[in-house]
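FORM 12-B: Structure-to-Sequence Request
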């Protein structure tokens, strides 16, 4: 009968390392998620931890392959470790693959707006972008052309209501969607009057920060709403900013509909340029 020492010596070292590295990678990605979502550690740090965890997961899969060969050829122990390590590391590296459909469906842009010729600027929010973040200046024609091809429905919203009323409704809509307003400037007495709202939003799981700017312009009879949504980090937003813009415009329309007895659809229209 073999002693525990003999059994330990016949266990594949690759299998042991496979589980260890897989567990470390899983702990790393969960730590990055927890610290960034709840404690707002710098996004570049969280992204680096994320990349490191994926590399660790790939390394664990490679170790699992070597362990399987070792077990097959030498009859070493550790098959259960290989299975466990393979499952954990597969979960670590699988989630980026789940994003491929979104990556392929949306253009590689991180800044969208309903007015590509003169997008609402980021004034207060530009100072909140840390070194290494995306530049808050709209990239211009390069992004505008890709946006038009991928999201042709993103157009200014024209409403037959006073600019002051539409501005207040826009502020309410932003808050209802859970965005955090950092600055607001109501429209003045000039003609045409303009009001600005700046807010930030966070993604559901990772809590990445995206900036939102809303410009409401017009007079006592009509108003125009322009929205801009941009990611602070990353070259590809996976279509997130376009969806946020649509959601905000829909919420504004819904809030305005709630204030009148007749359907707002008769009194509003989307500009098709």
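FORM 12-B RESPONSE
SEQUENCE OUT:
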């Amino acid at each position: 009968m073999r002693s525990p020492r003999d059994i330990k010596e016949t266990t594949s070292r690759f299998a042991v390392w496979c589980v260890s590295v897989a567990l470390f990678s899983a702990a790393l990605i969960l730590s990055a998620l927890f610290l960034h979502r709840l404690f707002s550690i710098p996004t570049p740090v969280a992204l680096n931890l994320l990349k490191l965890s994926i590399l660790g997961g790939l390394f664990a899969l490679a170790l699992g392959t070597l362990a399987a060969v070792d077990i097959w050829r030498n009859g070493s122990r550790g098959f259960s470790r290989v299975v466990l390590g393979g499952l954990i590391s597969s979960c670590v590296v699988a989630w980026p693959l789940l994003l491929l459909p979104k990556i392929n469906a949306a253009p590689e842009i991180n800044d969208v707006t309903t007015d590509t010729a003169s997008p609402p600027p980021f004034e207060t929010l530009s100072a909140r972008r840390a070194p290494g973040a995306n530049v808050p200046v709209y990239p211009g024609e390069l992004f505008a052309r890709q946006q038009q091809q991928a999201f042709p429905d993103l157009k200014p919203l024209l409403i037959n209501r006073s600019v002051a009323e539409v501005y207040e409704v826009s502020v309410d809509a932003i808050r209802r969607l859970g965005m955090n307003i950092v600055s607001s400037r109501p429209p003045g007495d000039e003609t045409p009057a303009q009001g600005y709202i700046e807010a930030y939003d966070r993604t559901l799981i990772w809590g990445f920060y995206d900036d939102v700017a809303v410009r409401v312009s017009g007079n006592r009879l009509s108003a125009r709403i322009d929205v801009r949504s941009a990611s602070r980090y990353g070259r590809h937003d996976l279509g997130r900013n376009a969806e946020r813009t649509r959601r905000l415009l829909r919420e504004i329309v819904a809030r305005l509909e709630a204030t009148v007895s007749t359907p707002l659809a008769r009194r509003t229209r989307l500009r098709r340029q």
